[in-house]
What does this fold into?
Amino acid sequence: YYKLSPPVKDLLLEQQRVFFKTLEANGVELIFSTPLFDCPDQLNTRDPSFVIGNIFFVSAMKESLRASEKQGLEELIKTIDGEVVFLTDCTIEGGDVVLNGDEIFVGISRRTTLDGIAALKKHLPERYDIVPIKLKKGFLHLDTVFNILSSEDAIICSEALEEDSVKTIQKRFRCIDISLDEQLHLGTNVFSIAPGKIVSQKFNARINDQLRNRGYEVIEIDYSEAAKLGGAFRCGTCPLIRE
It folds into this structure.
């Protein structure tokens, strides 16, 4: 993207404003981490932290540029009413953690390892079941190739996952399978505002039609400039409380 069509700052900010207003109009309270100089990937706020139940996890980021993003969470952490866990001595990022109630699907990827899964498991109550999902080489995070829409439905790019992991997901969910081209445009990276209501990229028309066919209300937003930084609606949000 940077070589052919780099993100346009003013357009990116306008697209963000539209997304934020959409969230607020649907009853979501927004809290912002502290912006940091020279951390462009801080936009993808799902990665440096994630929440499971009442536990706020601070990720163990692989890349040094992204590791400093946790500094932007310091003021937020002071307000957390619950346990805060700093994952260390491993590699695990929030984009590889996808929740479905007490099931936790964790991607084994370029940024999350088996050591990261083991570290996460140590801090979780026994009721949680961790399901490892193996990504093929070349794909960054689990939520760029798999996303859960409800307890029954999911979006998957099966070509981006190892065969045994595809079978695991397909046994558990009714899947909308997307192409590699749709994956490149982050077709899985939708955001569920509420049960049955989803924010999705407006140019992913086929996926949006599939969602509507299954009864979902789809709010279409142009978030193309953010996608050039490697993340869309799910990557750009980190739910602290799910109701």
Observations:
- DSSP finds eight helices and twelve strands in the chain.
- The two ends are 36 Å apart (CA to CA).
- Helices lie at 9-25, 64-67, 74-78, 114-122, 163-172, 180-184, 205-213, 224-227.
